[in-house]
C-alpha cells in the first residue's frame, strides 16, 4: 500500500485532555499560557504523525488567541485536525476547550495554527500524504490554510 496516498482529515484527528492542577497555574489560579501551548503542541504533533506516518517537528505556531482563562480544576481538551498537507509540511488547527466538571459547562478558550514538518530517518524533511477533503468545512479550512501559506511564503 502506498503510504503517500491521500488520507482523510478524520484519520488523524486527535483529542488530548488533562485535568489542571495548582502547579499549572499562576497566583490568580489561572493556567499558564505555556501549559496550554504544550498541550496544543502535543495534540498537533500526534495529528501530524498520524497523517505522515513518521516523526514530525514543530516549525511554527501562529494565531494563538487566549479568549477566556482556564482555571485550576478545569478539564482541558485540545482538539487537533489537519487543515493542509503540502510536500513535507502540514498545518494543523487546534481548538482548546475548558470544562468545569462540577458545573457541566464547557467553553472554547483558544485556537491556533501549528505548522509541522515530517522527518525521514536522518532528520531531513520527508514527503507526506495528500489530504482527502470530504466535507465543506474541511474544504473551507483547507482554502484558508492555503491562503495563510501564501502569506507566510511571501514574507
What keywords describe this structure?
single chain; 155 residues; alpha+beta; five-stranded antiparallel sheet; two-stranded parallel ribbon; 2 helices; elongated
Order of helices and strands: EEHEEEEEH
| C-alpha geometry | elongated
- Mean pLDDT over the residues: 95
The Rg value, from CA coordinates, equals 16 Å
How is the main sheet built? 5 strands, antiparallel
Distance from N terminus to C terminus (CA atoms, Å) equals 38 Å
Number of separate strands: 7
Helix content: 25-40%
Structural class: alpha+beta
Number of helices, where a helix is a run of at least 4 consecutive DSSP H or I residues: 2
Which strand order spans the largest sheet, edge to edge or round the barrel? Answer: 2-4-5-6-3
Detail the poorly predicted runs: none
Plain-language structure description:
The protein is 25% helix and 37% strand. The protein is of the alpha+beta class. A hairpin with a 3-residue loop joins strand 4 and strand 5. The radius of gyration is 16 Å and the shape is elongated. The N and C termini lie far apart (38 Å).
Write the layout of secondary structure elements.
Elements: E1 7-8, E2 14-19, H1 33-52, E3 56-66, E4 75-85, E5 89-100, E6 105-118, E7 131-132, H2 136-154
Parallel strand pairs: 1-7
Antiparallel strand pairs: 2-4, 3-6, 4-5, 5-6
Amino acid at each position: 500500500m502506498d503510504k503517500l496516498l491521500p488520507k482523510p482529515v478524520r484519520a488523524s484527528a486527535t483529542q488530548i485532555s488533562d485535568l489542571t492542577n495548582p502547579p499549572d497555574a499562576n497566583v490568580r489560579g489561572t493556567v499558564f499560557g505555556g501549559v496550554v501551548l504544550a498541550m496544543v503542541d502535543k495534540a498537533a504533533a500526534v495529528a501530524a504523525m498520524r497523517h505522515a506516518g513518521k516523526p514530525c517537528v514543530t516549525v511554527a505556531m501562529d494565531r494563538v488567541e487566549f479568549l477566556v482563562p482556564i482555571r485550576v480544576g478545569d478539564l482541558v481538551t485540545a482538539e487537533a485536525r489537519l487543515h493542509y498537507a503540502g510536500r513535507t509540511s502540514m498545518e494543523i488547527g487546534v481548538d482548546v476547550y475548558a470544562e468545569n466538571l462540577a458545573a457541566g459547562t464547557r467553553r472554547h478558550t483558544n485556537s491556533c495554527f501549528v505548522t509541522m514538518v515530517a522527518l525521514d530517518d536522518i532528520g531531513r524533511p520527508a514527503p507526506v500524504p495528500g489530504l482527502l477533503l470530504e466535507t465543506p468545512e474541511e474544504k473551507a479550512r483547507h482554502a484558508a490554510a492555503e491562503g495563510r501559506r501564501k502569506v507566510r511564503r511571501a514574507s
